[in-house]
Amino acid sequence: MRNEILKRQDPEINEILKKASVSILGCGGLGSNIAMILARCGLGEIYIYDYDKVELSNLNRQNYDQKDLGKSKVFQIKKKIEETVPCNKIFAEEVLITKDNLAEISGKTDIFIEAFDKKEMKSMVFEYFLGKDDKKLIMASGLSGLGDLSDIKVKKIKNISMVGDFKSSPEQGLYAPYIGIVANLEALLALKIIIGERNGK
């Protein structure tokens, strides 16, 4: 089934992705979409972390529907992935990420995608991973409003890659198209890191 689902992709890259794993920190507008995107690409293992439940206000941009309301975000997105592309291993943990459990979480994979809403959570993860050369962190900064494609940039600081417009704020509103672009770019960066590492780049 996996080969048939992924037949429009490069078979050599499919094999690389099959052996790869990524952790997604947060499962809202970014994380719920990133998880499905990476699963559709054939990533072997995906670890997802969040402590939140699905609310009505999530439905305008997050990968959930009305049947998910009141339920755990991580377990619902795990279920959706398994129903859509059942050829990945999805590990869902309903947990609030803190300084105390980051060390344990960071031992699961080498590539992490930050998908938080709150600045303090973003800062905590940035400070934890900065300079850890054996780990790669992908972050988002500035994804509110309707934006402009020309404003979206990718910046790199040591082992951390950041994507976004670096200036918009939640007061401008959260819209599916702009958030979706950033989510796809974060997922794309993860794939490029995986393929680059396997090819010795």
From TrEMBL:
One of its GO terms (molecular function) is nucleotidyltransferase activity. Residues 13-198 form the THIF-type NAD/FAD binding fold domain. Pfam families: ThiF. Keywords: Membrane, Nucleotidyltransferase, Transferase, Transmembrane, Transmembrane helix. The chain crosses the membrane at residues 175-195. NCBIfam families: PRK08644.1, thiF_fam2. This is Sulfur carrier protein ThiS adenylyltransferase ThiF. It comes from Anaerococcus murdochii.
